[in-house]
Design a protein that fits this description.
Elements: E1 3-10, H1 15-25, H2 32-42, E2 55-59, E3 65-71, E4 78-85, H3 88-103
Length: 112
Amino acid sequence: MAVSEVAGWVWPANLRTTMQYLSMWIGYDFDDTDWDAINHGFLKTSGDPPGRPQYDYPIVGSPILTVLLARDPGADPVSVLVRGEMDDILRARIDTLLSILAEVQPAPDPDA
């Protein structure tokens, strides 16, 4: 398998779901510790050039994937880039997941 990249974006409320599905597909048990690390590191990112600071998080399964995340200043979406040795099926799953979660904007919290 060759190293591939799949890029897209998701709404912030869908980021945890994104990470859970990516992990499940490669046999990694994503838990609250992973989410806490991502949530903490991700808050310091920006998708604004020129340096484009991004937070990268490895998901150590089979295959190993690296997920790069960045916030877009002044906008809600989260930029997502998944990199790793992927077969065609995994690449298609990731592309589909990012496409769906970019379209599904969570409903506002009625208790907020």
